[in-house]
Specification:
Helix content: 10-25%
Oligomer: single chain
Strand content: over 45%
Structural class: mainly beta
Number of strands: 17
Radius of gyration: 23 Å
Shape: elongated
Number of helices: 3
Amino acid sequence: MDHKYAVVPSLANISNPDMYVVYKDLENTLNISMAGVADSKLQILNPKSLTKKSDGVYIMKGEKGKKNKAGANVVDIKVGVKGRAVTSTVTFEVLKIPDPIASFNGKPKVTRSSRKRIATSKIMASFADPKLAKALKLEIESFVIKIGVSQRKVTGSSSFPAAIRNSIVKNAKKNSIITIKDIVCNSKKYPKRKFLPLPISMEVVD
């Protein structure tokens, strides 16, 4: 996750107030600067989970935050200037990564379709937050498709094998429900982590 965080001596600002968040299990990138102050003069006073990557670029990793009075996990990012009694603090909410949303062809709002369209669909998954979706692109590792009482696991592909495509076209009845469940996703950025979207269903209309 990338954040632009500009600091002036009396006030800290972020371009979009709705994005005062960092994610608990991600490397969060923050661009930190102070008007009229050289990067070499900046000091990160808090938290310890924030480390410098390059001029103006900092990485926050492994931050769990602390509960505030409202019960939310937060972290105060406090920046100072070497040799000057100047500090500025901005509070970020520390969030868990939400469950991704699975869909047929990247269209989660579409819940009814023809057999042919369903059969040629790709199963996809992403996050509702567009910034998180851009930072953490997901690939389908495996899923189970249920057609009536029949179930089959698909591995290593987001598309249906030929046998399943044919089964949908030939055997799926009008108004029947095709369900995709036990979906497992991965990300090249975090190869050891598995992401598990909720099941999705599609009604056959023809």
